[in-house]
Amino acid sequence: MQDQQRTNWAFRIAILLGLVLGAGWGFLLGVMLVRLNTLFLFAGMLLTALPIAFFGGVLVAVAFHRLIPNWHKIARLIVILIFVALGMPFGLAYGVMEQQLDPAQFVNTTGALIWDLEWLFAILGLMAGTWTGWMRPFAERGQATVAPPVRFIASIPGRLVEALATFFETVGRGFLWLPMQLLRLVGGAYRNIRERWTRWWMPTRTRPRRQRQTTHKRKRPRLPKLPTRQRADHDDGPRIMRVVEDRCPYCLDIVKRNDPRGVQVCEVCHTPHHADCWAITGKCQVPHLNT
Fold first, then answer.
1. Of 83, 90, 75, the residue nearest 30 (C-alpha)
2. Which uninterrupted H or E stretch holds 272?
3. Tens of pLDDT, residue by residue, the chain (291 residues)
4. Diameter of the chain by CA atoms?
5. Which domain, by its residues, includes 62?
6. CATH (domain of 250)
7. Domain check: are 31 and 155 in the same one?
8. Going by C-beta distance under 8 Å and a sequence separation of 6 or more, which residues neighbour residue 157?
9. 113 and 27, same structural domain?
10. Are both 18 and 152 inside the same structural domain?
11. Quick check: 6 and 56 in contact, CB under 8 A?
12. How far, in Å, CA of 164 to CA of 20, rounded?
């Protein structure tokens, strides 16, 4: 959050400095052109005004590039052209009033061609300062001797913008900290009073209902109920569970109650037999001790 605020302050300060730079150069260029046109003829203007307009535009465009390096070159050129165009009419008007000249007569005397060339060279200088590829051969030759001071001078606008952004951010945070804390306290107190007023004085039907939870609770699977245990099951001693399974003593197969093979029960020991097995032996297959 602090980095974002610092970036916003840096951008605003860079735009403000760019406006001052462009409008100031436009004002100075307008005053200079009026004065030079009153001093020199056409040839003199070609040797003085055109180089000044060109190289001055180069320096202004390079400085604006250092202020806003992340912008596209076309966007930077359009913005600096607008800033220069804002300041130039004031410079021309100031120069004409300073020299006490008639604008129409002054232009007719100097000729419109020289004014067109001066403005053209000023625009070309801004373009050359935006696209600096043509400076590369000259920069490579003088890099050993001129690079350190030039690099230091070129870094001054960026350092100035960063320092001003940090200063305004610190001062603004210091001035706004206490009012923001007071606003937070007042807002919290107002919310608490409103909630208590609603809870105490509003009827039950008109009270705002609590919002239902949107998250569904996880349902646990229902476990089957355990059978009720008898008193005997609570004893600490061993328990014996029996399952009655009648088998025929002859074939050792299970004898069902309604067995399709028939059922024959011994009259002495009451042991069930299959009817066909009883028919084979003709007697009970369990030994009787009392017979």
1. 90
2. strand 272-274
3. 455 555 677 777 778 888 888 888 888 888 888 888 777 776 777 777 788 888 888 888 888 887 777 778 888 888 888 888 888 888 888 888 887 777 777 777 777 787 778 788 888 888 888 877 766 665 565 555 555 666 666 667 767 767 777 777 777 666 666 777 788 888 888 888 878 777 776 555 555 565 555 555 566 667 666 665 555 555 566 666 666 778 888 888 888 878 888 888 888 888 888 888 888 888 888 888 765
4. 162
5. 2-172
6. 3.30.40
7. yes
8. 17, 63, 66, 67
9. yes
10. yes
11. no
12. 15
152 and 14 both lie in a single domain: yes
Sequence-distant (6+) residues with CB within 8 A of 86 are: 19, 22, 23, 26
Q: Is 183 contained in some domain?
A: no
Residue that finishes a domain, picked among 150, 172, 194: 172
| Residues in the chain, overall count | 291
Q: Are 71 and 61 in contact (CB under 8 A)?
A: no
Contact 61, 133 (CB under 8 A): no
Q: Is 135 found in the same domain as 272?
A: no
Backbone angles phi and psi of 96, in degrees to 5: -65, -45
Which residue pairs, CB below 8 angstroms and at least 24 apart, start in 37-46?
37/106, 37/110, 37/114, 38/99, 38/101, 38/106, 42/111, 42/114, 45/110, 45/114, 45/118, 46/117
| Statement to judge: residues 19 and 147 lie in one domain | yes
Domain count, the chain: 2
Q: Does pTM top 0.90 for this prediction?
A: no
Structure-block tokens of residue 128: 């050359």
* 62 domain-assigned: yes
Rg, the chain, Cα only: 53
Domain annotation covers residue 195: no
Domain end marker among 133, 154, 172: 172
Q: Is 98 helix (H, G, I), strand (E, B) or coil?
A: helix
